[in-house]
Amino acid sequence: MKQVLLSFVLLNIVFLSGCATAQTSAKTKTDSKPEVKQQQTFEGDYQSSRGVMTPLSCYCSDGGTLTVTEDEKIKVCFDGLKEKPDDCTKISVTGQFQTVANEPEETNPCPKGTMKVFVVESFKCK
Fold it and tell me: What residues contact residue 47 under an 8 Å CB cut-off, 6+ apart?
């Protein structure tokens, strides 16, 4: 049992350290397709994915999921903001949707691809 637990912990450490490396060494860029940049505001329940390896982690180092309605969940990214929503469970965010591309190096565990995320420009805890 201890070996299984130790293996699980070591696997997570290796995976997360690869993700941290991915954040610094992966090339991310906005998609070359022109998008209409329209500022929008959403409000809902926020769950951070900071420190947890999720598909969003390959495109955004400080993000999470905003549940606007039961059927509408938005991947949000707080990269570039000085202030972070550390203790927010209900939040209002303002920003723009962007398609972010990930072109990882060989040692990066993240797959090559794109993801549409909501890049937060400002937020307010509710």
Answer: 64, 65, 67, 89
